[in-house]
């Protein structure tokens, strides 16, 4: 989905909401939402706060979570979800709105396999002390 110009955090929040809505419509009732933005995860885990610019999106996410299903929300490093990272990197080339990726996209198929096998790249994390 190409959202046009918006913040990375807003894109993550909208992606979480749209993904949950799609999972519900497809009949999935056990869903693990993984976001590589710790900020977005914190916003979605907060109790309703009406004084931030993404409160409507956050509220919609909370409403979706209240449905009769099991939904978990976790932070994952970008390196742990190469498929989503690849799709996001292609977004600027897509028209505004929803787009479907062909299963013949060999790079996407490779990243799906990579993620399914639980592979990831090492990441250097430095303590700020």
TrEMBL record:
Q: Molecular function (GO) terms listed?
A: nucleic acid binding; RNA-DNA hybrid ribonuclease activity
Q: Where are the transmembrane segments?
A: none
Annotated ranges, domain RNase H type-1? 7-90
- Entry-linked CDD domains: RNase_H_like
Which Pfam family, an example, fits this chain?
RVT_3
- Read off the InterPro entries from this record: RNase_H-like, RNase_H-like_dom_plant, RNaseH-like_sf, RNaseH_domain, RNaseH_sf
Source superkingdom: Eukaryota
Q: Which SUPFAM superfamilies match?
A: Ribonuclease H-like
Q: Which PANTHER family match?
A: OS05G0353850 PROTEIN (PTHR47723), PUTATIVE-RELATED (PTHR47723:SF13)
Recorded protein name is RNase H type-1 domain-containing protein
Q: What is the lineage of its organism?
A: Eukaryota, Viridiplantae, Streptophyta, Embryophyta, Tracheophyta
């Amino acid at each position: 989905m190409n959202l046009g110009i918006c913040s990375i955090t807003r894109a993550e929040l909208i992606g979480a909401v749209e993904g949950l809505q799609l999972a519900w419509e497809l009949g999935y009732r056990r869903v693990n939402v993984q976001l590589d933005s710790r900020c977005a995860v914190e916003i979605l885990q907060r109790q309703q706060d009406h004084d931030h610019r993404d409160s409507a999106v956050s509220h919609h996410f909370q409403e979706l979570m209240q449905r009769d299903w099991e939904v978990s929300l976790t932070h994952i490093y970008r390196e742990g979800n190469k498929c989503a990272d690849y799709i996001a990197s292609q977004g600027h080339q897509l028209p505004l709105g929803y787009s479907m990726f062909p299963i013949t996209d060999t790079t996407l198929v490779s990243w799906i396999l990579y993620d399914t096998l639980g592979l990831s790249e090492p990441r250097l994390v430095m303590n700020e002390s």
